[in-house]
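Example (one chain per record):
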Amino acid sequence: MSSTAVRFAVIGADHLHLFQMVDRLVAAGAAAVAHAPGGGLIGMYTGWQKASEERSADAILADESIPLVVLAGIPCERAAVAVAALRAGKHVLSDKPGVTTRAQLDEVRSAIDGRRGRPWTVLFSERFENRAIGEAVALARSGAVGKVVHVVGAGPHLLSAKHRPEWFWDGTATGGILVDIGSHQADQFLAVAVGADGPPAPAQVRLAAVGNAACPDHPAMQDVGSMTLVANGVVGDHRLDYLTADGLGTWGDVRLTIVGTEGVIEARANVDVAGEPGAEHLFVVDAAGTRRVDVSNRPVDWAEQFLADLADGGERLMSQAHVVAVCDLVLRAQQAATRWGES
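Predicted structure:
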């Protein structure tokens, strides 16, 4: 299967990440040939991908000429579609979170059991789309700051309440704040603490908490969360929230700090507050001094790697074990979470 021959279909159009995913795949040579009806963003999608043909989900899954299904529906609905697609022999590229419950992850595991390569991919876009985050992880893996000791991740988001769909406020639909946006931080933590081959044993959840600090009109909403993770002697402290002030000028101030025995790496994904303009800022402090690292020439090539993996059953982008481990870890953190502010 060559990348230029990969035909894919979209099932579920409820998150804007869909447009980023499809745009990268098409730019890498794949073809958006079909989509299932439904989803809050389907009108926008069909107006953009005019050559995409509307078909039922069953017809898409039965079409042997479509080896890849892209999922960006309501989070709690993605796993069932993924399982059906996997059992139909398809590969799946899902927006995060790929699952919202333990039972869903168990079903996905059963569906991928015995399959070669990485048939089920969840795209953790913070790492694969943001060049500063991607380079920070690569530098840490290369030993640029010695042995990694501590990872600190922050994922503050703008609430943008008036633009959110109804399902956004439902913790059952999203899986909760740690499962949803926390999957980015868990991905980055495991990528640094464990590396490319997946953990030899599950990472541990030391502490976790979730709460509702600023959304009284939506009491089931979790707008703040934290988790402390441990793997291979590395501690990870992670904070997620929807408390970003409107004045920031972007959707959130995502940060990743990696502390090693010989230095510190800090990535600021979206904004360098009161510093340089633009996004994708990366800093390194080591024995040689302090420096800003230019990541402007770093390729965002996850789609090319993904399509190459489809062609030969490889795991260039990340391993199947890593994808499963991230999902498992955030589900355990969400389950273990106490109420925010309570001891």
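Caption: The CA atoms of residues 228 and 237 lie 5 Å apart.
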